[in-house]
């Protein structure tokens, strides 16, 4: 068996397991979703801090930075689900203050680098992942909080569909490079093919979500809009992570997912798509 075939089999098996975990974790119960993404947040920040600590004159406190990001995710989840009040964010703020003040008592060479890379982990990883709670939990007119797993799950379905459609279309028709400086493998033809595929899937999701006696917060046209938002920002998220890796001089962010690289490699698109989806949802809500 050739190495290429072995890699394809490994990538397929790990991909199927990954999708099964994500779908089950999001759609089963809200507590499971919280635990799943708190774990993902922690693993991704831990991987990120390992990468940046290899840079000259950078010393990020891995444990506290990771713990802060996980706590922030849980605080947002608790607040959005109505479990905890806004005061639950105070320990996170204290941790951020500590991470700044602690540089006064270390012998690290460049405090600005440490602060910058520490805060980047919170803005680039912890905050976007936390926004999935804003998608998942909706306050109803009765005052009760409703868990809508369809919205967060659809973001990932659109991302996976976009990747598959872009790969197929790019392999068949790709000639014009989308962003050769950052990601020479991507083409305009692939991106267009991925976008068309997502629009088809978004229409199906919108139809199912509003079929029979069901009435979702989004109609079919708005589902199509969400699909386009995920396509654009998911692609930018992929390119942002590619720029991050090129800046560090690495190919993959890790090897925790066989055939798929590291956590950042697997969730790069979602780190831009999730916040963009939140902005989109709240924007259309304002103009109803």
TrEMBL record:
Membrane topology note: Multi-pass membrane protein
First-level EC class: transferase
A single GO molecular function term of this UniProt record: phosphatidate cytidylyltransferase activity
Pathway membership: Lipid metabolism; Phospholipid metabolism; CDP-diacylglycerol biosynthesis; CDP-diacylglycerol from sn-glycerol 3-phosphate: step 3/3
GO biological process, one term: CDP-diacylglycerol biosynthetic process
Catalysed reaction, written as an equation: a 1,2-diacyl-sn-glycero-3-phosphate + CTP + H(+) = a CDP-1,2-diacyl-sn-glycerol + diphosphate
GO CC term, one of those recorded: plasma membrane
PROSITE patterns: CDS (PS01315)
Record keywords: Cell membrane, Lipid biosynthesis, Lipid metabolism, Membrane, Nucleotidyltransferase, Phospholipid biosynthesis, Phospholipid metabolism, Transferase, Transmembrane, Transmembrane helix
Compartments it resides in: Cell membrane
Entry's transmembrane regions: 12-28, 34-51, 63-84, 115-137, 149-169, 190-208, 220-240, 270-287
Chief location: membrane
E.C. numbers: 2.7.7.41
Ranges in coiled-coil conformation: none
Family of the protein in this entry: Belongs to the CDS family.
Name assigned to this protein: Phosphatidate cytidylyltransferase
């Amino acid at each position: 068996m050739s190495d290429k075939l072995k890699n394809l089999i490994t990538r397929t098996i790990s991909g199927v397991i990954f999708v099964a975990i994500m779908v089950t974790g999001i759609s089963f119960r809200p507590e499971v979703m919280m635990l799943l993404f708190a774990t993902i947040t922690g693993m991704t920040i831990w991987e990120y801090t390992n990468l940046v600590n290899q840079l000259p004159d950078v010393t990020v406190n891995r444990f506290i930075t990771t713990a802060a990001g996980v706590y922030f995710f849980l605080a947002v989840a608790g607040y959005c689900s109505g479990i905890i009040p806004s005061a639950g964010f105070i320990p996170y703020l204290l941790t951020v203050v500590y991470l700044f003040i602690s540089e006064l008592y270390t012998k690290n060479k460049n405090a600005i680098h440490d602060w910058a890379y520490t805060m980047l982990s919170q803005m680039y990883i912890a905050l976007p992942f936390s926004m999935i709670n804003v998608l998942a939990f909706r306050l109803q007119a009765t005052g009760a909080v409703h868990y809508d797993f369809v919205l967060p799950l659809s973001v990932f379905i659109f991302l996976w569909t976009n990747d598959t459609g872009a790969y197929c279309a790019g392999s068949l028709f790709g000639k014009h490079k989308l962003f050769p400086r950052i990601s020479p493998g991507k083409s305009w033809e692939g991106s267009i093919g991925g976008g068309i595929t997502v629009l088809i899937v978004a229409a199906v999701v919108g139809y199912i979500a509003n079929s029979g006696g069901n009435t979702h917060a989004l109609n079919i046209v708005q589902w199509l809009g969400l699909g386009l938002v995920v396509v654009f920002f998911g692609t930018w998220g992929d390119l942002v992570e590619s720029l991050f890796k090129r800046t560090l001089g690495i190919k993959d962010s890790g090897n925790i997912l066989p055939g798929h690289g590291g956590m950042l490699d697997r969730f790069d698109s979602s780190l831009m798509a999730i916040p963009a989806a939140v902005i989109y949802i709240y924007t259309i809500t304002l103009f109803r």
